[in-house]
Design brief:
By secondary structure, this protein is of the alpha/beta class. The chain is built from 14 helices and twelve strands. Helix 9 links the parallel strand 6 and strand 7.
Length: 337
């Protein structure tokens, strides 16, 4: 049976006063006597009265709720992004509604529609790997909802955004491999229709170019998940005798390829050095511990929320769209020489 929600009108009827008296008593209005205020508040608590959040938001035209669409909550990077977002949002009086697309375009569209239906004040979005069409994002922005992209952005839309300097991170990672003696470096890459995939590939290429090492496209594999590493293990093993370094586009891919190589007699880093990207907890418990790029997800999350709240708190201000770039830093461990 559907629960009964006590309203201000119900309380007024039960106490024999007007609804306006109840409303003002609950807000500690000075026109209402202390005796009446105490009576109303005590009774409201007894009957478990709760304000209707939707009705309040309709009156104020604001819900103080931020909507988040994120590819994967289980991914350490995205969970650290959420922590940064929530810490700042709650500190500023906002709550968050979190939706996971699970790297599925159709779920992303449904999630966005659900958040708009629940009248969130603004949106924080990181697009899925399968998102190649952006009407749902255009429509949300055209409806006047402020939006901040983070990590995986839609370059078609002119919005605030917070991104990792993927190009520079990949250049740093590949340069580190080269400076430790590697010349034949395999890049396990993300899809290039995603800017992170494109930029990390280009950073890898730039590092090779800077050190006059020819690019061999046979050493670039679209392979950015543990599952893809396992499905391509035989191909990777055929390449293994030719290479002395691997730059994995993320930590899970880097660790998966390490395990495949170790199971087949290769030593890390004596035979092949490996660098990842992300610096999640798995990097420290890998064997050996993984050299990687710290991606600073918590900082990214806080910055994305800061930009969004700046828009929400200053709706009439002419603020140019901003792009905040966070540069990752190399964390040297035991998988490179």
């Amino acid at each position: 049976m559907k629960p009964t929600h006590i309203t201000i009108k119900d309380i007024a009827k039960m106490l024999g006063v007007s609804p306006s008296t109840v409303s003002r008593a609950l807000k500690d209005h000075p026109d209402i006597s202390e005796e009446t205020r105490n009576l109303v508040k005590t009774f409201a608590e007894k009957v478990k009265y709760r304000p209707n959040a939707l009705a309040l938001s309709l009156r104020k035209q604001k819900t103080n709720t931020l909507g988040l669409v994120i590819p994967e909550i289980v991914h350490h990077f995205f969970s650290s992004v959420i922590s940064g977002m929530e810490d700042l949002a709650y500190g500023e009086g906002y709550t968050m509604m979190i939706c996971q697309s699970n790297e599925n375009f159709y779920r992303e569209v449904i999630n966005l529609q659900a958040l708009l239906y629940h009248r969130v004040d603004g949106l924080l979005v990181s697009i899925s790997k399968t998102t190649r069409e952006f009407n749902h994002l255009h429509n949300a922005l055209d409806s006047g909802i402020p939006m901040v992209f983070f990590d995986r952005i839609c370059d078609e839309l002119d919005t605030d955004r917070v991104i990792t300097d993927d190009f520079e991170g990949a250049r740093i990672a590949t340069t580190h491999l080269i400076e430790t003696g590697c010349q034949k470096i395999l890049h396990l890459a993300a899809p290039r229709h995603l800017l992170i995939g494109k930029n990390r590939y280009e950073g890898y290429v730039q590092a090779l170019k800077n050190h006059k090492i020819p690019l061999d496209e046979n050493l670039v594999l679209k392979c950015d998940t543990r599952e893809e590493v396992m499905s391509m293990r035989q191909h990777i093993l055929t390449l293994a005798p030719q290479i002395d370094g691997i730059f994995g586009v993320n930590d899970s891919t880097a660790i998966a390829v390490m395990q495949v190589l170790q199971e087949n007699g290769y030593r890390i880093p004596e035979d092949i050095s490996v660098v990842g990207f992300g610096d999640g907890p798995i990097a420290t418990i890998a064997s050996p511990p993984l050299t990687t790029l710290e991606q600073k997800g918590y900082e990214m999350g806080r910055e994305a929320v800061r930009l969004l709240i700046q828009r929400l708190e200053n709706p009439s201000a002419m603020i140019n769209n901003q792009t905040k770039i966070i540069t990752p830093s190399l964390v040297r461990r035991k998988t490179t020489r």
